[in-house]
Specification:
The protein has 155 residues and is of the alpha+beta class. 24% of the residues lie in helices and 28% in strands. It is built from three helices and eight strands. Strands 1, 2, 3, 4, 5 and 8 form a six-stranded antiparallel β-sheet that branches.
């Protein structure tokens, strides 16, 4: 990886349809095929109930990447991977096969209609904060009360 940045990039993975662990692994393989991109660390798998939605429980994880891709290019690549793995958006907070959220891209702060960094609801979601704290303890933040989350296993 020649042009990779030293910035810490974090992506949240979520899903509640299909074989989620297999989808996560295949999605991570696809992410690592992106130009100048590699996985540095990955959290365990976690299970949580949907937040502001209905449907089956979610599995979640967070991965840390090293990448030369700028934030918007990475976002577009992640959205293409979601689509490749059957992500549909019939309505807001619909159940999904795969959700890839760009959580942080180094220390960059961006606020556009297409992308906000750090992720605007990062601090509100136990299903992101707990796995993020597992791989980046220095970024640990208080976990919202009333959001149960259970560690399932490594993957």
């Amino acid at each position: 990886m020649s042009a990779a940045t030293d910035e810490r990039v974090f992506v949240g993975l979520g899903g509640n349809l299909g074989n989620v662990p297999a989808t996560f692994q295949a999605a991570l393989d696809a992410i690592e095929q992106l130009p100048d991109t590699a996985c540095v660390a990955k959290s365990s798998l976690y299970r949580s109930d949907p937040v502001d939605a209905s449907g089956p429980p979610y599995m979640n994880a967070v991965v840390q990447l090293r990448t030369a891709l700028p934030p918007l290019a990475l976002l577009h690549a992640l959205q293409a991977i979601e689509t490749r793995f059957g992500r549909e958006r019939p309505y807001h907070h619909a159940p999904r096969t795969l959700d890839l959220d760009l959580l942080r891209h180094g220390l960059q702060r961006i606020a556009t209609p297409e992308l906000t960094l750090p992720h605007p609801r990062l601090h509100e979601r136990a299903f992101v904060l707990v796995p993020l704290a597992e791989i980046a303890p220095d970024l640990a933040a208080p976990v919202p009360v009333g959001q149960a989350i259970e560690r399932i296993a490594a993957w």
